[in-house]
Amino acid sequence: MGRPPCCEKTGVKKGPWTPEEDIILVSYIQEHGPGNWRAVPTNTGLLRCSKSCRLRWTNYLRPGIKRGNFTEHEEKMIIHLQALLGNRWAAIASYLPQRTDNDIKNYWNTHLKKKLNKKLEGHDQEGKSSSSSSSQSKISKGQWEKRLQTDIHMAKQALCEALSLDIPSTGDSPNNNNNSTPNLPVQEPVQTSTTYASSAENIAKLLQNWMKNSPKSSSQCRSSSKTTQMSSFNFPSIGAVSSSSPSEGTINNATTQEGLDSLFHFNSSNNSDVSQSMSVDEGGNFTPENNNAAIFQVESKQNLPNYNFKAEINGSFHQEESKPNLETQVPLTFLEKWLLDDNTNAQAQEELMGMALSETADLF
DNA sequence: AAAGACTCCAACCGCGGCGTA
DNA sequence: GTACGCCGCGGTTGGAGTCTT
Fold this sequence. Notes:
InterPro entries: Homeodomain-like_sf, Myb_dom, Myb_TF_plants, SANT/Myb. This is Myb-related protein 306-like. Keywords: DNA-binding, Nucleus, Repeat. Pfam families: Myb_DNA-binding (PF00249). α1 crosses α8 (200-212) and α5 packs across α6 (101-129). The strands form 2 sheets. The chain has a 3-stranded antiparallel β-sheet with strand order 1-5-4, with no helix packed on it. The protein has a two-stranded antiparallel ribbon with strand order 2-3. It contains 15 helices and 5 strands. β2 (278-280) and β3 form a beta hairpin. It has helices at 19-32, 39-44, 50-61, 72-85, 89-95, 101-129, 141-166, 200-212, 215-218, 238-241, 249-253, 257-264, 334-340, 346-354, 357-362, and strands at residues 194-197, 278-280, 286-288, 309-311, 316-319. It is mainly alpha-helical. Among the domains are: 12-63, Homeodomain-like (Arc Repressor Mutant, subunit A), CATH 1.10.10; 68-118, Orthogonal Bundle (Arc Repressor Mutant, subunit A), CATH 1.10.10. The longest helix is centred in the first third of the chain and has 29 residues, at 101-129. It binds a DNA duplex through α3 and α6.
């Protein structure tokens, strides 16, 4: 019949992840690659449910995540995509591969919503003051969105039908993630070769913070970028944590210098996805082998489901999503073309972004 | 300086789709 | 065909940090 339960509800740790847990998770994924989340807690000895592990990886530890402020361009992208797709954050995030859906969702809820509300209110005030508003401006936002979504839906259906004749299967895309636009022909909008800050940098920061934190304090402090700097470093005993998983040797190695090297020098030859260059000095201090940012060399490996990276010497990444070239001859609406276009058309995007929503509505 | 209000975001929860036994 | 588990998604929450009074 069915499978064993995902995870026992009892004895599962909740709350913020400690740096130690992060290290264990990262090293495990480095070894085995992402996926098969159910096996992660049992194999690593982490007292976390598989869901929590997956979330931690996808939202925080995963390579390629950009942190910090959203750029104006990203902001505009999100606003427009939200207008198009609604609160389908995963779909929106697929157009901003450096950002997680959680990040985008948070940013929307905390910043953009308010921003737009203010703008909307301002517009309302203007509308009230000037009675001779155009007939178009009378269309409420809700109506406009409905119309937009209907149009998109119809366009997608037409595209899907057309593609089903021309392309036997589009399901092989490694990024075909069952998101809410499954029928959209996936010429993935993400950059085929985009340079951006290493998110492995996140892990570097994390590791640096962790190195600076004492194990005791680390359980108190959050492992986010907000983590306060600690003055001393005591290397925690990861081996102790991994004692519950004797079958996994890699984690036990981490207590030795060799183990550390193997931990920080991601260069697995099988299906591991990341390779990093870092060093740990005599005092156990973690030092990236470059001045400011740690260099993580992340190379494209074959079996990686989602992310292939090429590293540059300056520590930035090229993300090369190995997607099938689904160049189609099917006519697209202007806006969908724009959405499906890659980021090399930044200027065109900027122009489109500059348009008012009411203007983009005319494109349909 | 202290207390309360507010902001932000990592993490949790619950649901639905899909795959598997 | 059915039941069950896994995975991914969107909504929500908890609490640390920051701002205001």
